[in-house]
Amino acid sequence: MSKAKIAVISYSLWGHVAELAKEAAEGARATGADVTEYQIAETFSPEVLVKMKADKSLTKDLPVLNAQDLKNFDGLVFAFPTRFGRAPAQVSALFDRTGGLWASGSLLGKHVTMITSAGTQHGGVETTALTTFPFFVHHGMIYVPIGFQFPELSEISEITGISPYNAATVAGGNNSRRPTEKELRVSKAQGTYFAEIVGQFVRGKI
């Protein structure tokens, strides 16, 4: 039986998104999927990263994604923070390098989902999904949201970044808040759910 091939692709400045992405990758692997983790190329200089107190420890050893790599997978999990309610420049730079893939229809019909984070509770975790949809739509990809299947989305005992669009976290204005147990749990569950959906599609094609 053919395994679903899934890429978990992260851009993370302070490690919040990287933590969630690691959980999603683990959840996807639990289904038997073939999972490869990547990082998105950095555009900030090392000097700027030091001044920003960036934490790349969770992604530094991951291979940097080449846009052409995207066509090799059945499912894509993009994990990146919000920047003013949209994808950061590093992610947009990757998207801008997919023109050839668009022209050849190489991403048509592939499944995709997202994980994100914001500095505040209303800082853009949902709008980042919405403002990234045009990229998915232009490539003809199929977005897989998580809906309200997980009880954590309906609990109001604590602040979380989770939405029916995807798992997410709230990092805090000074990035001091780490992903909570609930946010990590939903991220792992999202990885499992996504891999199951992609797996059904792959098996149906055989």
Automatic annotation (TrEMBL):
It comes from the Eukaryota. GO terms for molecular function: FMN binding; NAD(P)H dehydrogenase (quinone) activity. Residues 6-194 form the Flavodoxin-like domain. One of its GO terms (cellular component) is membrane. Signal peptide: none annotated. It holds the Pfam family FMN_red. Belongs to the WrbA family. This is Putative 1,4-benzoquinone reductase.
